[in-house]
Amino acid sequence: MAKTGWFETVAEAQRRAAKRLPKSVYSALVAGSERGISADDNTAAFAELGFAPHVAGLSAKRDTSTTVMGQAISLPVFISPTGVQAVHPDGEVAVARAAAARGTAMSLSSFASKPVEDVAAANPQTFFQMYWTGSRDKLVARMERARAAGAVGLIVTSDWSFSNGRDWGSPSIPERMDLRAMIRFAPEGIARPRWLLDFAKTGRVPDLTAPNLSQDGGPAPTFFGAYGEWMQTPLPTWDDIAWLREQWGGPFMLKGVMRVDDARRAVDSGVTAISVSNHGGNNLDGTPAPIRALPAIVDAVGGEVEVVLDGGIRRGSDVVKALALGARAVMLGRAYLWGLAAGGQTGVENVLDIMRGGIDSALLGLGHSSVHDLSPADLIIPSGFRRDLGMSD
Ligand SMILES: Cc1cc2nc3c(=O)[nH]c(=O)nc-3n(C[C@H](O)[C@H](O)[C@H](O)COP(=O)(O)O)c2cc1C
């Protein structure tokens, strides 16, 4: 057993993260926006779905493997990109290692704290995620850097609407971890000695920079400096998405699709995959849970592109529900971040093991031998559950 100890559910990982992390870092992971309607619905919607299990004639062996964006993965769960800093000194490298150890793919945010070269070296199944920020030349340079590092797919996230208020208060995060900031945040750090010790052992303080957004080998911009440039960048059109997809040439995902009309436009832009997602409820509050929007999108474009889902996945049975409604795989956000905070690489592996165990139990109960056999008939779906968005044109 690792020194941090095994945990049995994602809820326990979250409790440990809350105990271990300074308040401002923990609240940056919880995130959510405005009233938190979307963030709450993301998990509540899974609880509305039930199962219709069998009692005998069950399958002794269950296969959880699949493929996504050309990558063979051992379970239909992979890492969603999160631009978040200071959770653990090994950050996204630990996450990438854990995903590799469990046979699945990693997605790295361009706002992440570790360089793509280190992350792709830790997991050869790394997808690089970009926002539409900076000029076309800068976008291409960033993308080519990721390709040279070994990234095997590109994810473009374009659902961000710069919503930043939260009724429960936003964390106060310094621009840079300089002496002034360290003194200001010292009480938080002292209250969380194990977190402080983890960083102290590396001889570094969290540097709060975005190394994947540096230009021409220059210094990494600060997280907020990079955010400022993004806010000033003209917003992408569908032609821009198609252009970037052309530039990349390989497997390409558009993340954040919630409507059937947008899913169709994404197909027209030549994408390989879409993620039905509301950015973990961190975006336009009042957007329903992606699991509600999934069935209509699968009906419309499921035969043409790979449809994955992210938002609200906390257990293996959530994964099975998403697959039964037509997702090819799901991506994890907060669940692995809490695992990372609770136990570094081991904690992320623990979360992936929880997912695998839960998927296997649900498959057993439902009488299936493979994740590919799941269908809506396995579920109890209350009337009015679906939200068919953007069906009119
Ligand atoms: C702290 C935090 C930071 C995030 N940063 C990014 C990001 O940089 N790029 C991105 O595409 N999505 C980002 N997301 C969204 C996640 O990729 C994912 O869509 C979401 O977390 C899924 O919901 P879940 O947390 O309920 O699993 C972030 C989410 C969180 C919680």
From TrEMBL:
Signal peptide: none annotated. Pfam families: FMN_dh (PF01070). Transmembrane segments: none annotated. Keywords: Flavoprotein, FMN, Oxidoreductase. Its cofactor is FMN. The active site is at H279 (proton acceptor). FMN binds at residues 81-83, 109, 129, 157, 255, 277, 310-314, 333-334. It comes from the Bacteria. One of its GO terms (molecular function) is oxidoreductase activity. Residues 2-384 form the FMN hydroxy acid dehydrogenase domain. Glyoxylate binds at Y131, R166, H279. CDD domains: alpha_hydroxyacid_oxid_FMN. Belongs to the FMN-dependent alpha-hydroxy acid dehydrogenase family. PANTHER family: 2-HYDROXYACID OXIDASE 1, S -2-HYDROXY-ACID OXIDASE-RELATED. NCBIfam families: actino_HemFlav. This is Mycofactocin system-associated heme/flavin dehydrogenase.
